[in-house]
Write a structure and sequence with these properties.
GO terms for molecular function: isomerase activity. The protein is an alpha/beta fold. It has 10 helices and 10 strands. Helix 1 (about 30-45) links the parallel strand 2 and strand 3.
């Protein structure tokens, strides 16, 4: 059997591919457990500088495979609260806590938890035919995989609630215009554009990227300006004490390309 998640490593770029193209990469227990393992592996590997998450075939991820939620023959409902805590939340936290940037390259539909996985990433780039669908209400559910917080932060309360309640598809171009994702590009250009982004990140000082990621997390959670400024200054101090900062300044003054560690 083919693994439901694949990972390759080249030039400091770990590419993780959801690999159930015949089901639009819908999530099964095996897939989510293997995805968690691949993300943890990439996070722990010092040779990895950036992670790219994408889907095989014509879709990114259609969300939960509902064949695993068939209620027929069951006397009790599924404990979705426990399933979230066991399977989905560790992945969302791993992406958020990883000091390395994670790029989502969305090559088709991203629905339900599939949309949540994409929006959990640091940078989301999508092909123009991609659609983001908060499909939960269609099957009588709320929202999961961290999607509610991601939508609130990117769309604001009115649009986030409408997206969840109406479950209407948001095309990639609209998602980019609304600030839900970073960029929408022609489908045929998605792979090349993604390559440019991940290679640029792979050549950027890793301490700077890690501190930027932490600073933005602090900006989203700090209770007030003073708390944020304290964390921002501490992170700038960490970045400024790294040799890459000195090399960056020197290369600018000497008008040459920097040679970062």
């Amino acid at each position: 059997m083919t693994d439901p998640v694949l990972m390759s490593l080249s030039d400091g770029i770990a590419t993780i591919t959801l690999n159930r193209p015949e089901r639009l990469n819908a999530i099964t227990r095996d897939l989510i457990l293997m995805l968690r393992d691949k993300i943890d592996t990439a996070a722990a590997d010092d040779s990895v500088r950036v992670v790219c998450l994408t889907g095989a075939g014509r879709g990114f991820c259609a969300g939960q495979d509902l064949s695993e939620r068939d209620p027929r023959g069951r006397s009790e409902p599924f404990d979705l609260e426990a399933i979230q805590a066991e399977l989905y939340h560790p992945i969302v936290r791993a992406i958020a806590n990883m000091p390395k940037p994670v790029v989502a390259s969305v090559n088709g539909v991203a629905a339900g938890a599939g949309s949540g996985l994409a929006l959990a990433c640091d940078i989301v780039i999508a092909g123009q035919s991609a659609k983001f669908i908060q499909s939960f209400s269609k099957v009588g559910l709320s929202v999961d995989a961290g999607g509610g917080l991601a939508l609130l932060r990117s769309l604001g309360m009115p649009r986030a609630k409408a997206a969840l309640m109406l479950a209407e598809a948001i095309p990639a171009d609209d998602a980019a215009d609304l600030g839900m994702i970073w960029k929408s590009v022609p489908d045929e250009a998605l792979q090349a554009e993604t390559e440019v982004v991940v290679r640029k990140l792979a050549s950027t000082p890793r301490t700077a990227l890690a501190c930027i990621k932490q600073a933005m997390a602090a900006a989203a959670t700090a209770p007030g300006l003073g708390d944020y400024l304290k964390q921002e200054a501490a992170l700038q101090g960490i970045a400024g004490s790294h040799p890459d900062y000195g090399e960056g300044v020197l290369s600018f003054l000497e008008k040459r390309k920097p040679n970062f560690e």
